[in-house]
Design brief:
By secondary structure, the chain is mostly helical. Helix content is 73%, strand content 0%. It contains 16 helices and no strands. The longest helix is centred in the N-terminal third of the chain and has 32 residues, at 138-169. The protein is globular and about 60 Å long. The termini are far apart.
């Protein structure tokens, strides 16, 4: 298949359709593993490397910050040079960085290797789902995304336990090689998938725009992360925040003057695209904050071990796995708007229920019911959220629009975790008393974010399978995905 063909449009039930599902599922599982599997081994890493809490936090967040800062850049590369090609490059970088993580002789070099791993992750995230949407024919896209969403969560569910077993049985270094078989399998499967890109993408790469984006998001995320951990008045936090905001403000007028911009401003001419990104910011912020809070509450207030706390939340992943393909079918039949709003509302209800968890709460009566309702709402919300963006931009902008939505989701997650210490009444979240006092109001706040996202969906997202009406120009179709990754628990 020629790189100049923007949309191969193959059936889901075909050899190529199955191959693209397998490749994108494997790629997304790798992303889940790289982001979450490290958490279970942080105590071992800290003891082995004599690392403090701040260093261990950056072992986790350096990956997330790098991915969020480079997603827009990677999306443009995907559209310009080919989605399959960029996905393959990202997988190779990920494999090499994982080996470096496993061999790192110091925590500083481990953090540097995690940054490199984040570069690979940034290339994988937008190109994988853009490739799926560009390859499958339009009538199969929503269903394909539903299948992807369900299967990809296996990495999120299995990864922490496999990594924990490797860390306990052998060494924390082995968990960084857990993704190696998946990377190799994904590269082999990709050989049977046609490539696609934006045929109109030309000219030189927008290096200045890429730098503005990377420095802008990197500065803002660094300021949020360090400000929450070390205090907002630190000079490095203030400078990083101001520089980041200045770069992001300058990005839009700068891109408007470019002949071949990295960020196509026409993306924001669709009211549906703008609304979905606003809902994504709120919804994924709520998911990240609630996951963080639940882990802390289960361990500090209910007395669960780390492995028991992770196991306690597995049922939501199972329900999500079962519901996502059904959700894809419902979106294809009835449209995304109401289904997306219903799923977000159900998640909000689950958070209200879970806000009552405290000392003495039983698993069967307290944790499990809210957990099951949470999985149901999540399964109903994620696929229509993606399908709604499907109708908002053109196939030529697949990688870029996917990167925009993924960046928004990750910014929402990082921002929610950054404001959590203030919501809890202090920076030190390790205090059991602080969590005991803040858990309920914080969970109710996440429920409010879900309901606000649902209201946006009702007001602005298409209730049918047709595209929404743009504000300024006829929209183009597309798909994007915001990965359903819960916030990682940072050691206290």
């Amino acid at each position: 298949m020629s790189l100049d063909q923007a949309s191969p449009s193959v059936p889901l039930r075909s050899t190529t359709g199955i191959a693209v599902i397998c490749a994108t599922v494997l790629a997304s599982m790798i992303g889940f593993l790289d982001a979450s599997v490290v958490t279970v081994a942080l105590p071992s890493i800290g003891e082995d490397q004599n690392a403090g809490v701040a260093e261990l936090q950056w072992v986790v967040t350096s990956f997330l910050v790098t991915v969020a800062a480079l997603l827009l850049v990677a999306g443009g590369l995907s559209d310009r040079y080919g989605r399959r090609r960029i996905l393959a490059v990202g997988l190779v970088i990920t494999l090499g960085a994982s080996v470096l993580c496993a061999l790192a002789p110091s925590v500083g070099l481990l953090i540097a290797a995690r940054v490199l791993q984040g570069i690979g992750g940034a290339l994988v995230v937008p190109s994988s789902l853009a490739l799926l949407n560009a390859t499958l024919r339009p009538e199969d896209r929503a269903r394909g995304i539903g299948i992807w969403a369900g299967l990809a969560t296996l990495g999120m569910t299995v990864g922490p336990y496999a990594g924990g077993w490797l860390s306990d049985t052998y060494s924390w270094r082995w968990l960084f090689l857990l993704n190696a078989p998946l990377v190799i399998a994904a590269l082999l499967v990709l050989r049977g998938v046609p490539d696609s890109r934006d045929p109109a993408a030309g000219g030189r790469p927008d290096v200045p725009g890429s730098l503005l984006t990377a420095v802008g998001f990197g500065g803002v995320i660094y300021a949020l992360t360090e400000g929450a951990a070390r205090g907002w008045a630190r000079p490095s936090v203030v400078v990083a925040g101001l520089v980041g905001v200045a770069c992001l403000v300058a990005l839009f007028p700068f891109e408007a003057m470019r002949r071949h911009p990295m960020l196509q401003l026409r993306l924001f001419q669709s009211r549906q695209f703008d609304a979905i990104n606003a809902g994504t910011l709120l919804f994924y912020g709520a998911l990240s904050a609630s996951s963080y809070l639940l882990y802390l509450q289960l361990e500090l207030q209910l007395g669960y071990s780390a492995s028991a706390a992770g196991a306690a939340l597995i049922p939501s992943s199972i329900v999500f796995l079962l519901i996502s393909p059904v959700s894809g079918f419902l979106v294809a039949r009835f449209g995304p708007g109401w289904l997306m709003a219903a799923g977000m509302t159900i998640v909000g209800i689950a958070f209200v229920y879970l806000s009552a968890l405290g000392p003495g709460s039983s698993y069967l009566g307290g944790v499990l019911p809210g957990n099951l309702v949470y999985g149901l709402g999540l399964g109903l919300a994620v696929t229509p959220l993606t399908a709604a963006v499907l109708a908002a931009v053109s196939s030529a902008d697949l990688g870029e629009a996917s990167a925009v939505n993924n960046t928004v989701s990750r910014i929402g997650g990082v921002a929610a975790i950054a404001v959590l210490p203030a919501l809890a009444g202090g920076v030190d979240l390790s205090l059991t008393e602080t969590i005991a006092a803040s858990f309920r109001p914080a969970m109710l706040a996440t429920a409010g974010l879900c309901l606000a996202a649902a209201a946006i969906s009702v007001a602005f997202v298409s209730k049918t399978t047709t595209t929404s009406t743009p504000r300024m120009a006829p929209p183009p179709p597309h798909a994007c995905i915001a990965d359903c990754l819960p916030a990682e628990k940072v050691p206290a």
